[in-house]
Amino acid sequence: MLIYLTVLALTLAVLWVRKRYSYWKERGIPYSEPSFPAGNIRGMGRTQHLSAQMQRCYNELKGKGPIGGMFFFINPVALAMDLDLIKNVLVKDFQYFHDRSVYHNEKDDPLSGHLFAMEGTKWRNLRAKLTPTFTSGKMKMMYPTIIAVADEFLKLMKTEVSTNNEIEMKEILARFTTDVIGTCAFGLECNSLHDPDAEFRRMGRKIFSFANGRLLKAMVAQQFRSLARSLRIALTDKEVLDFFIGAVKDTVKYREENKIERNDFMSLLMKLKNADSLEDDSAHNIDPLTVEEIAAQAFVFFLAGFETSSTAMSYCLYELAQNTDLQNKARKCVTDTIKKHGSMTYDAMQDMQYIDQCINESLRKYPPASNLTRTVSKDYKLPNSNVVLQKGSTLIVPVYGIQHDPEYYPDPERYDPDRFSPDQVAKRNPFTFLPFGEGPRICIGMRFGMMQARVGLAYLLKDFSFTLSSKTPVPLKISPRSPVLTSEGGLWLKVEKLGGC
């Protein structure tokens, strides 16, 4: 009887899996053939980064319809292939796709309840409240703080280069952005530039350490969110959780007791903590934030701000190190602009067109978020089609695949900042470049991230030259264990001081 029941259970399980894997075939949608148990993401986290898996599916399915089918484990996932459909998903028909399909569990993991993962009305109302923090006016007010950190960064670089001309740029840039974010988000001196093992930097490294199956755990929780919440699965490391909540509690207490106000992210969050300081606006009204909810927002600002900007800058320098002509052109842009404005003013930083082009080409070739995920909030009928995406299903915009598509970017592996000259951008469909997303859920910190990347690169190119180190392979090997595009073994460059600096 036991053998019989075991065979029956296995047979039913096999039939159920086969039924799941026939999802796209039954609907007449072209799809990439899956294999159990990983579906179409086999090797992810072990031998390949998720971006490579998604690019393979994108290339296989392109031209076969507005969407293609694939599977994350046994869950069917729609791949948006058509640029008009992507525009509908991110902008025009946003009401069907307003949630990001990101696992969060505020009860057991308070730091996961942040703006990036929030859903529905709660997300919309908090987004409206936080948006004023990232206006051009607020960026200009934060600029002197960034420059102060950049001055310390320059001193550190000169010291480092005087003792060793081979530097791991990803780490030293992460220390720079950690200090910038720590000051602007928390109002705290992180001291990462002078102490590589400072608490904020150590926590930053820990957040992006996905060894010992953490990435697989995150992917499983992402695909089976209800089950993961019922099992009380938390993805944030306990030490990281305690550190950030403690840092926010201490900061809030100190500022309230000493009546300190600053033009930073923390001040706005503190205003949202007290019901009497919320604007009386029913359209944007939200419940007062708890200290844990404040910590979650500060956490995601820190998380996104230090990692993405430092990654973009390090890849940009890596590419410029391989092409002296482009590097000299970028350096001339910096020096000419400073000469024009008299110093590294906010207006000068905004005027560095070619530096922007270099950063954008870096973001095209190495997008920090290689995919955009959306949950279908209600049944959605694709325009000019009988295909219906069912409520609760997941749709992915394959950013990495699109930004490496030779139809949109000829010779896509070549680094060419001129792709982002104003005339070239005007000719191209804007939905072929999505490093920050688009529409109502476009990255809220985009202006801030670009500002600190411009400052960091301008300071470096003005005073140093960069060439490849033998420690850094060409092409780079991307770590399969990281959720963002990170080079395996860091990113080493030879750095030399320029004459007169």
Question: Features of this protein?
Answer:
single chain, 501 residues, alpha+beta, four-stranded mixed β-sheet, three-stranded antiparallel β-sheet, 19 helices
Describe the structure.
The relative contact order is 0.15. The termini are far apart. Helix 6 runs parallel beside helix 19. The longest helix has 32 residues, at 291-322. The chain is α+β, with helices and mostly antiparallel strands and 501 residues long. A four-stranded mixed beta sheet has the order 1-2-7-4. Strands 3-9-8 form a three-stranded antiparallel beta sheet. The chain contains 19 helices and nine strands.
Structural class assignment: alpha+beta
Tally of helical segments: 19
Characterize the biggest β-sheet: 4 strands, mixed
Strand order of the largest sheet: 1-2-7-4
Which geometry do the CA atoms define?
A: globular
Supply Rg.
24 Å
SS strand fraction: 5-15%
What is the terminal separation in angstroms? 83 Å
Portion in helices:
40-55%
Oligomerization: single chain
Contiguous uncertain segments of 5+ residues:
276-283
Give a count of the beta strands, DSSP E runs of length 2 or more: 9
Q: Mean pLDDT, nearest integer? A: 90
String of helices and strands: HHHEEHHHEHHHHHHHHHHEEEEHHHEE
In short:
This protein is α+β, with helices and mostly antiparallel strands and 501 residues long. The chain has helices spanning 2-21, 23-26, 50-61, 83-92, 120-130, 136-163, 169-186, 199-207, 214-223, 225-230, 238-258, 265-273, 291-322, 324-341, 346-350, 353-365, 399-403, 422-427, 446-463, and strands spanning 67-72, 75-80, 166-168, 372-375, 380-381, 388-389, 394-397, 464-468, 492-497.
